[in-house]
Amino acid sequence: MIEVNCKFIGSCRVKTIAELYNQYYNAVGIPLEFDKLEEVREKIIVSAPVEKEELQEKEEFVLKVLQNAVSLERVAYELVLDLANEGLTYAEINLIPSLHTRKGLSQREVVDAVLCGIGRGLGQVEHSIKIGLVLGILRQEDKEVNHETILLANRYKGTCVCGLRISGTDDGSYPLFLFGEEINLIRSMRFSYAVDADDEMDVIYACDNGARRIFQGLHASLSKQAIHALRTHNVILECSAKASYLTKKIPSLSSHPMRTYAENNVLVIPCSYARTTFGTNTKEELFDASHILAVPYQCLSKGIEMAEKLSFHK
After folding, report:
1. What digits encode the pLDDT tens for the residues 216-244?
2. 273: alpha, beta or left, given left = phi > 0 and alpha = psi -120 to 50?
3. Rounded CA separation 99/48 (Å)
4. In b/e form, how buried is each residue of 89-127, taking b as 16+ CB within 10 angstroms?
5. What would you report as the CA-atom Rg of the chain, rounded to the nearest whole angstrom?
6. pTM, to two decimals
7. CA triple 160-163-169, angle to 5 deg
8. For residues 233 and 207, is the Cβ–Cβ distance under 8 A?
9. Which of 63, 92, 129, 135 satisfies CB 3.0 to 4.6 Å to 84 for a cystine?
10. What is the CA angle 5-137-84, rounded to 5?
């Protein structure tokens, strides 16, 4: 079993975030502590469909205490343990380094800390799982910052840094064609890359410009052109029904278009995405795909097999 899209800031242990907050408050002299995990859980976990603004608040709550090397290393270490304990044999962790530089860390220091945690975790689980670290850039971020991230990935070639991901807003304000320069740079360094995209034109552009995988693609499911592009280029569609439902992108779990894509011979693979935020994991997403969405077993097997073959970390 493999996981191709595990979001770093969405997959932290609740207990860890609570402890990091208590340490943070003590360090700045604020007499406030989270005595009950439920208080922190409510600030992190999405249990019912929410608007984008509330989701951003939850992510900001986590990010506030992930601005130093010690915290980053700890979360990375624990995430490796959690992924291995689920029985996964391969997983890709998605890290956006620029999000963790608000208190003075450089992007390189962020990546170093996370790599240290991954290495310690792999030693703890006796390398029963293979981990790839995918560095992310945000569509709404400054170009200079994104270029730094891309070049940084190249600097870590040969480690578990294995690819890049173009993430960020999907409201149409930053269409993917505006990132041709970044995509060309990624491809010139022979890195595999993935894209978060729902819009039909973004999906087609990603397929035509070498993306290996696309996350969600919800609005493109009724587009013959998008389906043709996905199928022609063998681009794998990463799907998290729970994330789509809890962010109000679909009205119910059963309305996710994963089966529509599969029936049109598009490669699909369930993923957990933000495991803690949405209270899910890889096994649950596979169950939902098979039992709620009724995606045929052979379609899921084919997508997983191709994802293993085209995994970013060789």
Report:
1. 888 888 889 999 999 999 999 999 999 99
2. left
3. 26
4. ebbbbbbbbbbbbeeebebebbbbbbbbbbbbbbeeeee
5. 19
6. 0.92
7. 130
8. yes
9. 129
10. 25
